[in-house]
Amino acid sequence: MTLFLIDCVVLIACVMMQPAKNDNDAMSALNGGAGDLFSRKKARGFEAVMQIVTTIVGALFFILALALVFVSTHK
């Protein structure tokens, strides 16, 4: 349970540390954001590291959640 709570706090911190993607202009809203399909750039540097860390911590969150359910039902 302690590992799960620590993972929750780390996951929240990882999500909050990710840079914002502010591409919300009026033209994007009018054309449905179709221009973003091919203009996306690969994440580099800090953004790439935070995406990887968030994915790992999120996967660990689900694994620990399933483990807690399994342990609580098999007492």
From TrEMBL:
One of its GO terms (cellular component) is plasma membrane. It is found in: Cell membrane. It is a multi-pass membrane protein. Keywords: Cell membrane, Membrane, Protein transport, Translocation, Transmembrane, Transmembrane helix, Transport. One of its GO terms (biological process) is protein transport by the Sec complex. InterPro entries: SecG. Involved in protein export. Participates in an early event of protein translocation. This is Protein-export membrane protein SecG.
